[in-house]
Description:
Shape: elongated
Distance between the termini: 23 Å
Low-confidence stretches: 1-9, 798-818
Number of strands: 31
Mean pLDDT: 88
Number of helices: 31
Amino acid sequence: MKGGLAVGLIIPDLWQQEAVRALQQGKDVVVQAPTGSGKTYIFELLYPNLKTQAVFTVPTRALANDKLSEWRARGWDVGISTGDVALNLDAKVVVATLETQRGRFLRGEGPGLLVMDEFQMLGDPMRGVHYELAVALAPKATQLLFLSGSVANPHDVVAWLQRIGRDAVLIEHKTRPVPLEETDLGNLPDSQFVQSRNFWPRMIGRAMRADLAPVLVFAPRRAAAEQIAQAIASALPVRDPLRLTPAQEATAGKSLTKLLRNRVAYHHSGLSYAARAGVVESLAKAGQLNVVVATMGLAAGINFSMRSVIVTDRRYFAGNFERQVEADELLQMFGRAGRRGLDEVGHALYTNDLPRLSDTKARQLRRAAQVDWPSLISVMHAAKQRGEQPFAAAVELTHSLFSVQRVPLGVEHSLESGPRPCGLWVTDDRARFVRRGMIEMLNFLEEWEAKPAAESVTLGRAFVRENDRWRRALTVPRMLDGVGTGNLCRLREQNRYGRELPVATVLASGKVALAKWLRRELQPGKSVQRSTPNAQRSMRTRALNHEEFESEVRPLLSDLVKPGVIVDWIMRGNLISLRLDYANVPVNARIDSAGKALIEPPERENLPDVCRTCDQLEHDKTVAIVNSPTYAWRHLGLVEPDGTPTRRGMIFSFFHGGEGLAVAVALEDETYPIDELVFDLANIRAGPRFAGEDAPMGGRLGILCQRIYGRADYPGYLSMGVPVQYGAGASEVVRALVADPRSKHKLTSELLRHGDIERALVEWRSILRHVVLAPAYPLSRWTDLKAVAAELVDKTASPTSAVDLSTLVPLQQRAVRK
Length: 818
């Protein structure tokens, strides 16, 4: 009953009729039924009688494009909104990814009917937060229809909807239209036609001999998918090679075309969308392929079934990370076994220690650990504009999330106790503030006050603590330890200590012999030399007469004795000495409230002034510090202490995930050209493939993020200081393609395929369109970015746009006719 197979159905099953009746009565409906049982048909039955717009949301762009193509072929009035593409948005039905509806819900708007296909996404660790907040924000006038085949606790979803004031019912159907059976490939005989020692060709040969084909094989990574497909195609004889049209061959490329002729294909994100959806999937749906080897990471986007399914590993790669295959993911993969109307039984094939049907189970939905930061900050901004407390609005919204337990934001206690003199609302902020306390110093008036930052002052101005009282620093002999040379002396006119430094001895002849230190200072190469070379030699080798001393030496002494200042000349017997004052020597000191400069004043730790009489002191001193979401917002500079969003927070709130954090700091950097930034946006969702041997977190935007945010890790938002899907190198590829769209083939490599480049363009266009459609904000660089993004959106064409899909329908029809 699902997809095209439902077109000829006249009488719906009883459970489908029950769902339709509930919707017609104005109820919200949660449907839990096995894959392939006809959940989508419930919505299709409603189409003729829709009075208002319906938005049908799916988890991936590929599924959205499938639905668009399928329903357009039926003559429906249908549009699409997937971030990179937004066409016919006033249509009777809009197929969309749920994130594209967020802005609409934040404005308090919504369609007449919102369909959430694959609602198990509520429990997704990354996207679940967007799903649950979209539901919480959806207007009560918007009816909800949830569809899934892999949720263990749909009754909890119904209870959630009822808790937030909705009239919701559960429609549960447990019988698969095509029953599943487990088959051990190890117990099947080998095919006599397969002459290969390779494991997978032998296993597929056994399946084909047992009439279990066509087979959908799930592999852990791209390379494995291609290798398995090539090995199978090489080993399995084909009596009736598949004839492809020139258009199909051109789209698939030489390597894939060779496999397709043998009725084998691989299916992964490295393929272009046209090759993946327009050729491989259309041929698979038409029953023209014996084997399709797909990657597990793209399993959620597969919209076709085959007689049998094999899962080849218990782990797979998602981006750069290896993941364990979850039980509900296995359920979805094995759920692709069995074609309604073609197979009496679907087969879950296994061997040795491969995953089995018995390893599968539906997902027990639990809410994600985090909350949707951007949406909450948007709500806080709206509250501030209404004159309400921003944090209170965010907390109120969390009460509508998918959980009977509170979702702590970290301000709940402050909201209950009310504002305090410190002005801090975030519990973690207050706890850190009181425990960090303050350092006090003893001031000149013998009172304790907050210790200020050190300043540079002169030694003559400073005071030092001696024998429990303050004294001028230069009246304490030890303050000249290590300062200057010569003997300590008392400068009576200045009433402080200084130094007495001998400079020369008067000989019996009346001439002057220079002190040893002075002769050293007059050596060649010393910085202070104003006398002639002859005079320098004379001063170093013989005694000077009075006139020579006065004219050649005395003028140099002021510089030679720095930082001391000459305040007196004295004669002790035949010894000539200087008296030096060090009052102008710089020293670090603390300036107290009376303006006195204090060197190393006594210190003590104490509570901040505003905390000492606070009635929440005990709570703030003992509460656990948990790094709450609101503390993260404060740490990242997104909100003020009272919850008012900052400029950075406002820009962040216009986006999903961590991408807004990157855009915000780039706009703050006035030296970052907008025409450079607009291309660097391509790195935000690119992943690691484009970096090659370079640092994946590099590029100007990545380096800037790490400088501002350090190596911060916030799940779903930042990883090592950059957005979680960030990958350097994509901006250069996108820039090259915008300059010359024909250069795509030159940019591919063994690691970087057409599908990767195509997806990078799609994601980049999605971000550009998001910028264009985001709210206006009084920041000139944001206005400039919106303008440049709009120009590029108009200039470039999306490779997965609905316009391109028009070429896929004939391909599918030709495949079916064959």
